[in-house]
Amino acid sequence: MSNTVTALPFVAFRQDGTIESHWNPERTGDYAVDCATGRNYAGQFAAMMRDGGNESLLPWIIRAMPRGQEMSGVEIGFLTALSMLVR
User: Fold this and answer.
1) Pairing, β 19-21 against β 12-13
2) What whole-number distance in Å separates Cα of residue 15 and Cα of residue 63?
């Protein structure tokens, strides 16, 4: 796995290569599928961090996520998987 943010599938980039959004995941509207996607994204993010990724990226990801009722399974799966990794 690459240790750069460009390898993360949920980060959106502008044409000039700068980050447009730190959180722009694919969503299907199917809660179970979206939770699995979120868990997959968390695994990729954790692997990047273990490989020497940017330590300041997580707050930017969380800041870009929707809040409350607007959260989807992708966010729930991502955050739950990350919390399980630190146990």
Assistant:
1) antiparallel
2) 22
Angle, nearest 10°, between helix axes 31-50 and 57-64?
Answer: 160
What pLDDT score was predicted for residue 1? 46
Cα–Cα dist 18/86, whole Å: 30
Q: Do residues 8 and 21 touch, judged by C-beta distance below 8 A?
A: no
pLDDT over threshold 60, residue 64: yes
pLDDT in tens, 67-84: 999 999 999 999 999 999
CB atoms within 10 A of CB 5: 17
Instruction: Say how far apart CA 83 and CA 87 lie, in whole Å.
Output: 7
Contact 63, 21 (CB under 8 A): no
